[in-house]
Amino acid sequence: MTSRHLLDLNSLNIDEWMMLIKTADEIKNHPYRYIDACHGKVLATLFYEPSTRTQMSFQTAMLRLGGRIIGFDNPATSSVSKGESLKDTVRVVSGYSDIIAIRHPKAGSAKAASFYSKVPVINAGDGGHLHPTQTLTDLVTLYEEKGQLTDMRIGMCGDLMNGRTVHSLIKALCRFKGNSFVLISTPQLRIPSYIKDILNAVGAKYCEVNTLEEAMSDIDVLYMTRIQRERFSSDEEYERQKGVYVLDKQKMKLAKSDLKILHPLPRVDEITIDVDDDPRAVYFEQTEYGMYARMALIMNMLDENIHKVDGAPVSTHSETCTNSNCITQTEKYLPKIFKESRDILVCKYCEERILL
Amino acid sequence: MTSRHLLDLNSLNIDEWMMLIKTADEIKNHPYRYIDACHGKVLATLFYEPSTRTQMSFQTAMLRLGGRIIGFDNPATSSVSKGESLKDTVRVVSGYSDIIAIRHPKAGSAKAASFYSKVPVINAGDGGHLHPTQTLTDLVTLYEEKGQLTDMRIGMCGDLMNGRTVHSLIKALCRFKGNSFVLISTPQLRIPSYIKDILNAVGAKYCEVNTLEEAMSDIDVLYMTRIQRERFSSDEEYERQKGVYVLDKQKMKLAKSDLKILHPLPRVDEITIDVDDDPRAVYFEQTEYGMYARMALIMNMLDENIHKVDGAPVSTHSETCTNSNCITQTEKYLPKIFKESRDILVCKYCEERILL
Amino acid sequence: MTSRHLLDLNSLNIDEWMMLIKTADEIKNHPYRYIDACHGKVLATLFYEPSTRTQMSFQTAMLRLGGRIIGFDNPATSSVSKGESLKDTVRVVSGYSDIIAIRHPKAGSAKAASFYSKVPVINAGDGGHLHPTQTLTDLVTLYEEKGQLTDMRIGMCGDLMNGRTVHSLIKALCRFKGNSFVLISTPQLRIPSYIKDILNAVGAKYCEVNTLEEAMSDIDVLYMTRIQRERFSSDEEYERQKGVYVLDKQKMKLAKSDLKILHPLPRVDEITIDVDDDPRAVYFEQTEYGMYARMALIMNMLDENIHKVDGAPVSTHSETCTNSNCITQTEKYLPKIFKESRDILVCKYCEERILL
Question: Which of A16, A116, B168, C154 has a 20 to 30 A CA-CA distance from B306?
């Protein structure tokens, strides 16, 4: 892969994506060929906020490759993360392990960690910013269940304004030709304009609708997500609207026979239980594809691993990022680095745009 | 084994019990033959309530077979178990693992889990309902320490009314011929009548006594358990009585030289420390037999594992179970299934009996 | 090694130290020769107080030897350690494992554990008393980074009165010839007199100074530790003095080119971040040497392991230790054992000296 670390899925090119997706497929079909693939290697999972599901997926991936796991999952009971800088923890743990998966509530934390790690770093979610292995999971699922990544009509349902996984998946599918999108949400929770810019730039067709019913009959894929109660303008509005975004057996009758339903899980009640037995529901299989995707990723990154510390870049600006959730706000020693683009600065940690 | 899952030890026949017991014996005698027996396999321990001792026993069992472990132990810090149905968690984790051990405070939870798991489920304790691997541990201990499971006189001491392990062990020993029982407790904490029905049905002799002294001289096995302070009618009564149910060096002088003392542990003060060095005390060995018992069980269940979801049965009744601790009270989607027996319904999850 | 357990580094002789140090060096140079060295073995880490860093170092060490790990890290959520004596927990867990690393807030707890364990016990820190693997780590670091353990001038900076690691390292280095010491602290935080007695007994030269600057130019090794704010006589005193004990780039200019800086970590602000990139800073490497030191130790102890319980010694006195942090204060069943030395008794658990 072109980078030692996996911080942002978009830093890989399409060939690298396809290599990972095909490796995941190969592992799924022949798991026993890989049970010792990472024998003697150690994965450290540094979870600065609990996320049992994601952590368990990474851990299982490494264990099924014959590797070992260390790490922590709870900053409250972990003395490693207390009163110690991210830099020191990452530097120490990278001396114990061969690869690190880090999850942290602050945007840009995985990038910050990559500066000080002797071993490859995987971003397992940095605040609301990026979560590349979820998107890789979604791509593997589509490849396995649809047999293709091009020329699909994809419905996206839920809170499209704030949904990180939705944005990331749209961006990814825009790199494959012929995909079009049906964006299903309340008017208040429409997709942000920067995503529309991307759709327009690649010439991908899309439309925005208010109800699942309008979309069901002509889509090939339905990506369901949750709309949180607090996103509605009022409780009454929530009660009136919520059913519109709940997928149930009734709405399934409108759909194509080869529709595939994805969901990043956990679900709350946006998909009713009786849909689970429908063969078009693949959200549980999706979690398994996530395991294979992570196996492919870990195996590949360990293969190319060269043990050396990259060294942090030097600061390129005196500006400080204005995003209050940026990792540079709490870890003061981090170099201030920005991408300049005419009259704005883009923070290289969290991608916040600052007007000069 | 006749079932894919181990929910209740009584669902196995005697031949299957003896096969497991003899496998445990074989592993104990030749542990190094088994260090790779489950190479490449993964056990998930889903502990919805903390029970470090039981979880550690399961984990060690799997690790000593060369397998790997994932799971959680604390619902408070685990995002898997938060806001997600038992069904979804079990379905997802069964996609990661080859076998699941589940512990949950609600009766019938392991049975509920078995409906949705792709892999075999072991009941590691479901509320006060069943705990089959403890009983298997007790049988392995008796087989190892007494050389037999028949024709023994067994003392049972403590809170016989509420003690789940005691009830389960009596039921198990009633399936072997020639065993008789001395039931040692306060009058308030006598064995429940349904256990007496079982004893009478198989013609097993038993007597009820008030003190350890009365029982000590002619028993072959003494199974000690704790009487909790709150079980006594008053604090004065507790202070007056507690010594009667404490096993100490003095009382040991009354016992046969080949008596064996068992205890499910942890003990509080119902066995004094000076008894530990008596060769007749085998309660610490018992925890090791528990590890071998679980190794035998896991190995056997993995051998016969066919990867498929059973699919939940359909509801057989419109009734809802009346037991407030039944898993069907919190997981509303579960099918309502009952065994009918003349004018009563028996809940298939928790075995609560409901009069029609 | 002369003892089955590692409770106190001083119970080993110099030859045993050198054997461990050289084994650590060998593992560091050829880690892949050792990835299956402890295949089939289990390490239990019993951490009665959280110490993620130390626990992770032990766990990684065992995993990198191909062994497996069990244990607990948080007494609050662990039912093993709740309401159960140290004796019972250790006895049970030693039936599951091949070696135990124990950390406990009470002095003498590891010694107490060793009485009841069937397998070797490593002291991973018992209150403020002993922490032998930290000292072993420091020795391995000096051996690797200086190429020698003799004839060095060693600066020790920080809270020398209360610093356990400092005392322990001085004692260790006094067993090698030609070492001298520069003791850098405030007058209130000078080294205790019993350490001066040891220095004098072996004829090791030492001087006491008030500032890092006075020491920097002629030392070969600088061992940095933290001075906690609460150790100063007042907040004003702290603010006035703290910079004196902070190592920064400026002070580094005074030092020899082959100085090596150690720190047991975690650091707070006693070493500034800009020192990290100085090649003389080896405190991150030190944590890796700690992993190799623990690998050498575990491998060696497992080799010589004879499975038997030692049996606790009988009490030698009717006295009770007067140290309120001694393990005998909470675990009442422990035999009262003392070393007699003229008119004082020395507690064999915590080394408290009691005047008769």
Answer: B168
Q: Which chains touch B (3 or more CB pairs under 8 A)?
A: A, C
Contact status of A25 with chain B (Cβ, < 8 Å): no
Residue C39 to chain B, least CA–CA distance (Å): 8
- State whether C79 and B273 contact (CB < 8 Å): no
Helix (H) / strand (E) element for C353: namely strand C353-355
Residues A260/A235, Cβ–Cβ less than 8 Å:
no
Give pLDDT tens digits for B174-224.
999 999 999 999 998 999 999 999 999 999 999 999 999 999 999 999 999
Measured distance CA(B31)–CA(C41) in Å, rounded: 11
- The tokens describing C142, both together, are 């000096």
Q: Is the CA virtual torsion C97, C101, C106, C109 positive or negative?
A: positive
**Residue B237, H or E segment:** helix B235-241
CA distance B58 to B136: 13
Shortest Cα–Cα distance, B28 to chain A (Å): 26
Please answer whether residues B42 and B94 qualify as being in contact, where contact means their C-beta atoms are separated by less than 8 angstroms: no
* Shortest CA distance from A331: residue in chain C: C273
The superfamily (CATH) of domain B9-131+289-301 is Aspartate/ornithine carbamoyltransferase (3.40.50.1370)
For residue C285, what is the enclosing H or E element? helix C283-303
Query: How far is the C-alpha of B223 from the C-alpha of B283, rounded, in Å?
Result: 9
Q: Is residue B333 less than 8 Å (CB to CB) from chain A?
A: yes
Helix H or strand E encompassing A8:
none
Topology alike, domains A9-131+289-301 and A132-287: yes
d(CA A78, CA B220): 49
Cβ of A64 within 8 Å of Cβ of B42? The answer is yes
What is the spatial distance between Cα C219 and Cα C205, in angstroms, rounded to a whole number? 13
- The answer to whether C315 contacts chain B (CB < 8 Å) is no
In tens, the pLDDT along B135-175 reads 999 999 999 999 999 999 999 999 999 888 999 999 999 99
d(CA A328, CA A326): 5
Contact A85, A129 (CB under 8 A): no
- Size of the A and B interface in Cβ pairs below 8 Å: 63
Cis peptide before A120 (omega within 30 of 0): no
* Separation of alpha carbons A190 and A185, rounded Å: 6
Please say whether the beta carbons of C106 and C327 come within 8 A: yes
Superfamily the domain B132-287 falls into: Aspartate/ornithine carbamoyltransferase (3.40.50.1370)
Span C285-298, average pLDDT: 98
Q: How long is chain A?
A: 356
Per the listing, tokens 């002789």 go with: C13
Question: What string of DSSP letters covers A258-297?
Answer: T-EEE--S--SSSB-GGGTTSTTB-HHHHHHHHHHHHHHH
pTM of this structure: 0.94
C28 touches chain A (CB under 8 A): no
Q: What Rg, from alpha-carbon coordinates, does chain B have? A: 21
Give residue C226's identity as a one-letter amino acid code: R
Cβ pair B285:C95 closer than 8 A: yes
How many A/C residue pairs have CB atoms within 8 Å?
Answer: 61
List all residues 6 or more positions away from A235 whose beta carbon is below 8 Å from its beta carbon: A229
Q: What is the side-by-side order of every strand in the sheet holding B42-47?
A: B68-72, B42-47, B99-104, B121-126
| Rounded average pLDDT over A172-181 | 97
Residue of B56, B271, B272 for testing the chain C interface, max C β-carbons within 10 Å: B56
Domain coordinates in residue numbering, chain A: 9-131+289-301, 132-287, 316-356
To 10 degrees, the CA torsion angle through A232, A238, A244, A249? 130
ipTM of this complex > 0.90? yes
> Residue B288's closest chain C neighbor by CA?
C95
